[in-house]
Structure formats: C-alpha cells, structure tokens
Amino acid sequence: MIPTETKKKIITAVDSLFDQQIDFLQDLTRHPSTRGNEQSAQHFMADTLRARGYEIDQWNVNVDDIAHLPGFSPVIGDYEDAINVVATHHSREKTGKSLILNGHIDVVPVGPLDMWDRPPFDPYIKNGWMYGRGVADMKAGIASNLFALDALTSLGLAPAADVYFQTVVEEECTGNGALACLQRGYTADAALIPEPLGETLTSAQIGVIWLQVHLKGRPVHVLEAGSGANAIEAAIPLISALHRLEERWNRAENRHPAYAAHNHPLNLNIGKIEGGDWASSVPAWCVFDVRMAIFPGQDIERAKKDLEETLLSAANESDFLKKNKPDIIYHGFQAEGYSLADHDNENTPLAISALENAHQFVTGKELPFVPTTATTDARFFGLYADTPALVYGPNSDAIHGFNERVELESMRRITQSTALFIADWCGLEETDPTLPKF
Q1: Residue 437: pLDDT above 70?
Q2: Would you put residue 281 in left (φ > 0), alpha (ψ -120 to 50) or beta?
Q3: Under a CB-based contact definition with an 8 Å cutoff, are residues 391 and 378 in contact?
C-alpha cells in the first residue's frame, strides 16, 4: 500500500504540472490525425517520449503480421505509414505488477467545417472545457497517461515494474493497431485505457461489425422509370429489415446480463450511403455502410450469418434483386464484445480494487461501474492476452460530433487517479538519476 503522505504528494505533483499538461494536449490536438494521417502526431509522441528517456519502438503496422490473429479486422484503405509507437519504462527492481498504458492517436473525420464554432484542429478553452477534434477521444487520455508518469518522475519516483506506453492507430475502424502491439510481444499484468467515458469504469463493452451492401439496379431514362430498377430505393426495405433485426437482438431475453437494465444497448447505424450517376437516370448502383453491435459472448460468425440472411431475405422480396443479389462486403470492425466483470483472471479483482482505491482517494466517491454501448481496444487485451483491461477516462461531450470537448478538471482528476493507480499497481522505486526530471 502507498502511504497517504505519498499519495498526497503525487496529487500535488499532478497539479504542479497541469498547465504543462494542458499545453501538451493542445499541441497534440493540433495534429490532424484522421485515418491515414496519423504520422505527424505519432512522430510528435515518439519525440516527446524519447525526450523523457523511454526506450522507443516505432513501426509501421504490417497486415501480413496480424491477418492470421484472433481479433483481426478486414483492412480499410492503405496501411502504408500506419505507425504505432510504444515507449517502455524498464524497472530496475521489478517488484510490482507490469502495466500497459494504451491510447489511440487516430480521430474520426470532422465533417462540414461550417458546422464547427471554430476550426476543429485549432483547440481552445472555454468555461473549463477544451474544444477540438480528438481532444476528448482520446488525446486527453493520452495526456493523462503521460503526465501521470511525469508526476511520479517529478518526485524522483518511477514504477517498480515494466510499463508500456502505447499510442496506436486504427482504433476507430478496426483495432488492428492494438492487435499489432500484442503481435509484437507487448503484454502485461493489466492494461489501462483512458477513453472519455465520464470517470466511470467500463464493466462491459459491446462488439461491432462493419459491412458494406452493394446493390445493382437497371438504369433507364427517367421518362420510362417504371421499366427500370432503382438501386437507391432498393436499399430502403433492406435497411428496414436490418432495423427489425436490431429490435430482435435487443429484446430482453437476448441481452447480456451486463445490459439487462439497458433498453437498447445494440445500435444499428447506416453511416454512409452513395449511389447513382445522374438525376435523370434511374440509378444503376448503390452502396451503403452498416455498423451493427453485438453483445459480449455473442458469436460473431453467427451474427454475421444472421445479418446476411436478413439482407438476402429482404432482397428476395424484390423481383429484380431476387435475380441480382446484393453483394455483402466486410470491411473494418469485426470486433467481439468484452466484459471486464466476467474476466476470470486473478489480476482482475486486484486491478479493479487498485483503481477503485485511487478514484476514491481523489474524488471522495465510489467508482461507478457502467457498461458502454461502444467498443474500445480493451477487447484485445482482455480476450486475446488474458490481461484485465480497465477503461477509465475523463468527462467529455460531442465525441464524433461537432465541437467535441473534454472537461479539464475531469482530466486532472483522471491523471491523479491514474498516477495513484500506477503507484499502487506497479509499486514505486527511485528514478534512474540519469533520466530527465519534469
């Protein structure tokens, strides 16, 4: 156990570095690290971590290295320059438990710029919140991980176990960045992922399936539209059928126990649709993108078969589509759900208890356990490395939306709790005197 006086010093150390942490978060957010454009942010992270004396591993994710592994998701686009960064703290004493501090560097697209109050990659602070794309999801969490370690360093302390600080790509579409870290050999006794979920511990998370539906039509001039087959309009009954499937999966008798009290935990989203070539031509093609959730423990192959049968059954209601079946292409997430509460590992209750104690000391409140209707990279550590994965991060608003923001005082509390958790879980030793102080 960490003495109370040491805990107080750690909290004060986080406070003393907090202005620097805010500046760091703004600097990191200025890197527009959307899918395929993460390189500058990752170079920034590698330089930042190298300056602190950590051993740096920076590499391009290679699909051939991971495609055969459980948890792999079909790749979207080109993986050239899909860069991961892992910084390693090597403990001299190794008396504590090892830890992965994981965060994703990729952010979702910004959408129409005129719907933002200010440019999305020009972060600013207003009324205690910082605004900008990715500032909450999840660069504030990366800042919390970094400055939790910095707070210990400033006191002449370091974790008494190996710590792996990861910033990964691909979390928002496949999770293959986290999978690549496992393939490269980075494992530990626990993982902490500070996703912006409101100072709660994620007790369970859903899985996610992404797929595309490609529809054909029969193009004719609009003057004889009745003799054609409209591929865009053909999508409507297929989408309706998917919503009926969504309703069935969400029925109380089908829910995972963690979601028993949640009326609608599995969400279907038609996230993108395009088709046709000309306003006065019956469209010959249509493509729509589907995101569907599944419960922890729900068989992903059975779920995919259910989705396919639903789409093909609806297509059979159309004389044209009956003879011109939709093509179903999986790309992106093929993610299983993960339940921390069900994770049978001796370290699971120990890690949860350590985080509960840290949260209680900082906030004076019990740590809430909340199932989320999103997915995170926690599944890779929990399902494929038998590593308890704690998802615990700051209050946020409008993630994936316009004017995304994170509450700065919440980020401070998360950083303090993270620093205390590291101290408890890993133990403490004196800092290597040759390393920089912060």
Answers
A1: no
A2: beta
A3: yes
CB neighbours of residue 420 within 10 Å? 27
* Residues 6+ away with beta carbon under 8 Å from 161: 91, 94, 95, 96, 97, 98, 99, 189, 425, 426, 427
Q: Are 289 and 210 in contact (CB under 8 A)?
A: yes
CATH 3.30.70.360 in the chain, residue ranges: 207-335
pLDDT digits (tens, 9 = 90+) for 55-113: 999 999 999 999 999 999 998 777 889 999 999 999 999 999 999 999 999 999 999 99
Amino acid, single-letter form, for residue 237 = P
pLDDT tens for 151-181 read 999 999 999 999 999 999 999 999 999 999 9
Catalytic: 162? no
What topology is assigned to 4-205+338-430 in CATH?
Answer: Aminopeptidase (3.40.630)
The owner of tokens 């649709």 is 273
**The whole model's pTM is what?**
0.95
Give the pLDDT confidence score for residue 436 in this predicted structure: 67
List C-alpha distances in Å: 311 to 286, 290, 317, 394.
14, 11, 10, 39
The CATH 3.40.630.10 domain(s) of the chain lie at 4-205+338-430
Provide the 3-class DSSP secondary structure of residue 274. Answer: strand
Is 301 annotated in the active site?
Answer: no
Q: Which CATH class is domain 207-335?
A: alpha beta
Q: What is the CA radius of gyration of the chain?
A: 23
Residue 438: pLDDT band (50, 70, 90) is low
Residue 157 φ/ψ, nearest 5 degrees:
-120, 155
Residue identified by tokens 């990659």 is 121
Catalytic residue among 137, 170, 171, 407: 171
From 38, 106, 170, 424, the catalytic residue: 106
